[in-house]
Amino acid sequence: MKSSGIGGQAVIEGIMMKNGDAYAVAVRKEDQSIEILKDEYKLLTGKKKFLSLPLIRGVFNFIDSMVLGMKTLTWSASFFEEEDDGAEPEKEGFAKRHLSKETAEKLLMGFTVFLSICLALGIFMVFPAFLAGLLGKLIDSRLLLSAVEGLVRIVLFVLYVLLISRMEDIRRVFMYHGAEHKCINCIEHGLELNVENVRKSSKQHKRCGTSFLLFVMLVSIVLFMFIQTDTIWMRMLSRVLLIPVVAGISYEILRLAGNSDNFVIELLSKPGLALQNLTTKEPDDDMIEVAIQAVEAVFDWKKWQAENQYGK
Predict the structure, then answer these.
(1) N or C: which end of the chain has fewer CB within 10 A?
(2) Residue 8, phi then psi, degrees to nearest 5
(3) What are phi and psi of 249, to 5 degrees?
């Protein structure tokens, strides 16, 4: 298997696929037609050369993923907004009166991304560090304390995924997530991209964001074992400040995993692949059709397979 370099994300009733700076979003509308948006997103790592250096690029790739993810998610959701029920329209707020629609959307997207990051840091980084600090009175070994902190972090993440997976809308998103992985696996295993071949392909992929998040937690356990502090507050602050380092290391591991079949790398990838059983579900054929159209809008898979000598 060879890495194609394409990646994507599930959105509301659809798929976003990205290849280099080009991306496409395909959405199954309520009338069952498929709407496709094709555009470009200039990566931060492409604007400044030093941002593409190993360890540094992982942080900015994560930011790019968050921003583009919110942008495409908002676009897909626009097809399913509730129609006006006849109620009196609300008075225009400051944003509508003084800002253009594009500027207002960018501000809202920026605030949403910022709030999401703050909540994630608070729940999955700061809270476990705070809890470990309290347990410091009962546990003498700092190495054991760091391991407990990491375990709490992983348990919280798994519980969070289990909780949201019970929601019907999220379950459908996870089904589209499965369709995304299946399409990429189908291409990278040299198969023709059609519904039948995609259906029998795996819904797990080593370059998945789920695996990245698990790597973040595992790397943080190891790294934080060497970062010792005397107070709870310094412990929590150190976790936040070291997030870029953890993200940078985790991205390099994920990148290596997506481009290697080495036995050790395969072993390191297994926990993330297992966790993907929670964040990916088997899609139906309609979802697969949407995913295929998203891929073909930005990626010439036939040319790529020919260049990589599949079938020879």
Answers:
(1) C
(2) -165, -170
(3) -65, -45
Task: Count the Cβ atoms, other than its own, within 10 Å of residue 110.
Answer: 12
Give Cα 227 distance to the centre of its chain: 28
Whether 276 and 204 have beta carbons less than 8 Å apart is answered as yes
Give the residue carrying structure tokens 């395969």: 266
For residues 65 and 59, is the Cβ–Cβ distance under 8 A?
no
Looking at the DSSP bridge assignments, the partners of residue 40 are 22
Q: Where are the alpha helices (DSSP H) in the chain?
A: 44-47, 56-77, 94-98, 101-121, 127-135, 142-164, 168-188, 195-199, 209-224, 232-241, 243-258, 263-279, 285-298, 301-307
pLDDT per position as a tens digit, 53-88: 888 888 888 888 888 988 899 899 888 865 444 444
Q: Which of 201, 283, 287, 194 is nearest to 1 (CA)?
A: 201
Give just the sign of the alpha carbon dihedral 276, 35, 23, 75.
Answer: negative
Q: How confident is the model over 238-278, as pLDDT tens digits?
A: 888 899 999 999 999 998 887 777 788 888 889 999 999 99
| Predicted model pTM | 0.84
Backbone angles phi, psi at 247, to 5 degrees: -65, -40
At a CB cut-off of 8 Å and minimum separation 6, what does 241 contact?
A: none
Q: How far is the C-alpha of 73 from the C-alpha of 38, rounded, in Å?
A: 14
State which H helix or E strand residue 17 sits in. strand 14-19
d(CA 110, CA 127): 24
